[in-house]
Amino acid sequence: MLDEDLLSFIQGSIRSVWALELLLLLRREPDRTWTAEDAARELRANARLVSDQFAGLQTAGLIACEAGCRYAPAGPMLDALCARLETAYRERSGQVIKAIMAGPNDKLQIFADAFRLRGDDR
């Protein structure tokens, strides 16, 4: 079972397994600056998906982006959580994936809200 701190970090900062894979890729080479195209090639994904994930990871304070993106957590606590996340994913990937899937999904909420009846605030 994942501890509460790690679970909160996952659900608050990692929006998808793609974001996790991208974060771990950047973490493995912290001095390298990645373009969306380079990371997409490495992860066998498309560049638009990687760009979207870059944005989320940057907002979470886990990477820095200028001409490209690199691993740059906003503080030592975030770096420690990333290290723990990497270990947990290697040792208990199913639990980590389950935690990601249980986290908030803004696109799903927007879709659900589209079907809310006007004046229905429940």
In short:
The protein is mainly alpha-helical and 122 residues long.
Question: What does the model show?
Answer:
By secondary structure, the chain is mainly alpha-helical. The N and C termini lie far apart (33 Å). The radius of gyration is 16 Å and the shape is globular. A two-stranded antiparallel sheet has the order 1-2. It has a single domain (4-113), classed as Orthogonal Bundle (Arc Repressor Mutant, subunit A). The chain is built from 7 helices and 2 strands. Mean pLDDT is 89; it is low at 116-122.
Helix percent reads 55-70%
Q: In CATH, what is the class?
A: Mainly Alpha
- Multimerization state: single chain
Order of helices and strands: HHHHEEHHH
Looking at CATH, the homologous superfamily is Winged helix-like DNA-binding domain superfamily/Winged helix DNA-binding domain
- Please identify the structural class as seen in this structure: mainly alpha
Number of domains: 1
Shape by Cα distribution: globular
Number of separate helices: 7
Strand residues, percent: under 5%
Total beta-strand segments: 2
